[in-house]
Sequence to fold (72 residues):
Amino acid sequence: MSGPPVKRSLTLKGHRTSVSLEEEFWQAFREIAKAKNMPINSLAAEIDVERDPSTGLASAIRVYVLNHFRQK
Fold:
């Protein structure tokens, strides 16, 4: 089982924001960014632009990670 969410800062469109994710999601998110050969901030910015405004960024990242590995 995972521990509590870990808060980390990301830069989106030149602004810092904090996102809390469980460590397993952070690791998977970094793995996806590395596989796409892009910085984690760039991948987060893409997810941020595509998410529904009523969905929080952390939730959008979790769903993105889940969908990425489901498609494999």
In short: The chain has a mean pLDDT of 95. Strands lie at 6-12, 15-21.
